[in-house]
Prior knowledge:
Histidine-containing Protein, Chain: A; three-stranded mixed sheet; 3 helices; 3 strands; elongated
Amino acid sequence: MKVKFLAVLSLAAVAGVGACRSATNTNTTVLNTNTNTTITTMTPMATMTPMAATDTATQTTVQSALTKAGITGVTVDATTTNVTLRGTVASKEKMAQAVQVAQQAGRKAVNNELTVMNK
């Protein structure tokens, strides 16, 4: 049984290999041309992130509230979106107080860039 199977398998392999080879190869023309020779690439334009406008009314309000609370050495920058505190304060408690006063007076998000003075 094994011998018959191997004989049939061998004949099939020989027939398959023989059929693939012919005297004339009809697949000799290889066209490897690129028809997309005029590709135009668009360069994306840079988009500018709009900057928030300065809010002088909020800036004045927050600066006045800080002065009234006895907090000095703080610079206030206010935009239409947030309030930024910069400068040096005497302690961590004064820093926390400055942020709280700015939040209440400005009614906006507060960016705390304050530092505590080294004693």
